[in-house]
Amino acid sequence: MSFDRSIKIAPSILSADFANFGQEIRAIEDQGADWVHVDVMDGHFVPNLTFGPPAVKAFRPHVKTFMDVHLMIAPVDPYIEAYAEAGADMITAHVEAGPHIHRTLQAIKAQGVKAGVALNPGTPVEAIEHVMDLADMVLVMTVNPGFGGQKFIHSGVEKTRRVREMIGDREIHIQIDGGVTPETAPLVAEAGADVLVAGSAVFKGGSVDNPEVYGANMKAIRDSISG
Ligand SMILES: O=C(CO)[C@H](O)[C@H](O)COP(=O)(O)O
Ligand SMILES: [Fe+2]
C-alpha cells in the first residue's frame, strides 16, 4: 500500500469515559476517526498513571482502524514486548525516556510493529536526526506530556516545519499531540503534520449516547484545515 500523507485524526481515549472504553472506541470510529490514540503514563516519566498492557489488550478487539500507543514511560525498553503483544499497531517512545533511543526503536521494529519517536516541547529536533531511518513517525508534543486539556505550545509549529525538512522524501508520518483544536490544527497541518491527536477537542460535549457530537468535533478539525 502506498504511503498515506492525507490528514488523519487520532482521538486520544484519555478524554473518553473510563467506564466505557469499548463503546467509546466504537463511537469515535463510527464517527470517522482514522486512528485510536492510547496514552500510556507511568507516574514517573510523567505525573499521571493510565494503562498497563492488560488494559491495552482489552481495547484491541474494539479497534478496527489502527491502534497508536504513545508510551510516556521510563524505562521503556522492558515494556515494549508487552505492549506489542497487547496489540499495538504503532508504539511511540520518547527520546527523553532513556539514553538509547536507537536501541529502543530497533526493539520496537523487532516486534513487527511501527515505531514512533516523540519529542517533548523542550527537546530540539536534532535529538532524532540520527534515528530517522528507524522511525515510521515523529511525534511533536505541543503540550508537556501527562494530561489532556492543556494549552497548545506554539513553538511546536516551527518545530514541525523543521521535522518536515529533516524527513525529506522519507515515508515518515508527523504526528502532533496536545491542544489540537480547529484553531491550532491548520497551523500544524500547514507546517507538514499529517496525524493529529485530539482528546478534549473530539470528546467535548459528546457521549456514547450522543456520538454525533464526536463526528461534528472531528469535522470541525478537518474543515479548519481544508478551509
Ligand atoms: O499525550 C497526551 C498527553 O500527554 C495526550 O495525547 C494529549 O494531551 C491529548 O489531549 P488534548 O487533545 O486534550 O490535549
Ligand atoms: Fe498522546
UniProtKB/TrEMBL annotation:
Pathway: Carbohydrate degradation
NCBIfam families: PRK05581.1-4, rpe
EC number: 5.1.3.1
Lineage: superkingdom: Bacteria
Binding site residues for a divalent metal cation: 37, 39, 70, 177
Cofactor binding summary note: Binds 1 divalent metal cation per subunit.
UniProt-recorded name of the protein: Ribulose-phosphate 3-epimerase
